[in-house]
Design a protein that fits this description.
Length: 374
């Protein structure tokens, strides 16, 4: 195999595919990436038997072939080569020679014959969504997915289309983040593993040049697999199984109280509270709402804080109302609102409360489960 290509281009495709490589597998070949050249198309594949990524790019092809090598070592070598262009040569699947200017480095490789094939899905159901919108949806909610395998179904993003409304939801049971968007598509209900979602987020673009056709991501589903594809990039992943939380009931709950507050002011208060809290000194903050302000208080063995946050809008009866919650959950939600003000909806001090940006009230939704006092 032999080809030449710009080093940044090669670095990007190898880095993208490597996100699906197994970290530690009894099948050593899964720790590497499969590099395949056919004509002038170079395809790099990473696969851990659950998630597979293929990234393709045009190169100056010289001799077709394929090989498997360590993606991290290859990426670092390519990144540090002196010239913009690198030449890639493989002989007998034992050694890769990488040449750039007057620098020549060699690394070991092996045959790709034993690299498992990614199972291509039949795409029984598919729809497309704008790439920029999809990235915004995912980046603003994926932080809330569970990192604990006690409930595997929460270790991913729930995507559901029901009556032409597309819901994308992440939760760890203590907080929830969701986005809903009207879309013309058939009903569906899947849970995509966070590993696949995280890899996709890094590949999606936020830019759309003037005059260009809108860039879309195609989502295709076949039984227990999903394919997320765009241009020369594709992720195939197994879907998560199990029971997800009844998020619609929480989102559409009967909230009888509402306040409007400044995001920066409330976020700064949460940051100050977190100065007194650590993994060993866990303590919730207490919130009380008055006529034109909310009082935030927190006390640990490290110290005590009281803050007053302006309330620019208020509805409902807040007399004798106080609620306790994790300040880190509040801060992380506020950081994902990307706005100046939020509406916060309450029912009582034991029920989850809802946070929504004022300018798109109801599209992005953040839920926090309160903590019982005492």
């Amino acid at each position: 195999m032999k080809f030449s290509v710009e080093k940044n281009t090669l670095y990007d495709v190898v880095s993208s595919a490597s996100r699906a490589c197994a970290l530690k597998s009894s099948l050593n070949i899964l720790n590497g990436v499969l590099i395949n050249l056919s004509g002038d198309i170079l395809t790099v594949t990473g696969y851990d038997l659950d998630v597979g990524i293929k990234a393709s790019v045009s190169v100056n092809g010289g001799e077709d072939g394929e090989t498997v090598t360590d993606p991290r070592l290859l990426s670092e070598i390519v990144k540090k080569m002196p010239d913009k262009t690198v030449e890639f040569t493989v002989k007998n699947n034992k050694e890769i020679k990488i040449t750039s200017g007057k620098s020549v480095l060699s690394i070991p490789c092996k045959s790709g014959d034993d690299f498992p094939n990614i199972i291509e899905i039949k795409k029984e159901f598919s729809f497309e969504i704008n790439e920029k919108l999809f990235k915004e949806m995912l980046t603003r909610i994926d932080y809330a997915s569970s990192k604990n395998d006690a409930n595997p179904s929460l270790m991913g993003i729930k995507m559901e289309i029901s009556e032409n409304v597309f819901y994308s939801v992440a939760t760890d049971g203590n907080r929830l983040a969701a986005k809903k968007k009207n879309i013309q598509a058939e009903n569906m209900d899947i849970i995509i593993p966070e590993k696949a979602v995280g890899s996709l987020i890094r590949s999606l673009s936020e830019e759309e040049e003037d005059g260009d056709e809108p860039k879309n991501v195609k989502i295709s589903i076949d039984k227990n697999q999903v394919c997320l594809s765009k241009e020369n990039y594709m992720i195939i992943s197994r879907l998560l199984e199990g029971k997800f939380v009844n998020y619609k009931k929480i989102i559409e709950g009967e909230y009888t109280k509402k306040i409007t507050v400044n995001v920066r002011e409330l976020a700064s208060s949460m940051e100050r509270c977190l100065l007194l809290i650590s993994e060993k000194l866990k303590s919730p903050v207490c919130c009380n709402v008055f006529d034109d302000y909310m009082k935030i208080s927190c006390k640990t063995v490290s110290g005590e804080i009281e803050d007053e946050i302006s309330v620019t809008g208020k509805e409902g009866d807040f007399s004798d109302f106080s609620i306790y919650f994790n300040p880190r959950f509040m801060l992380e939600a506020l950081q994902k609102t990307f706005c100046d003000e939020v509406n916060i909806y309450f029912e009582n001090n034991l029920k989850p409360f809802k946070i929504t940006p004022t300018q798109d009230d109801g599209e992005f939704i953040f839920i926090i489960v309160p903590i019982r006092s005492g």
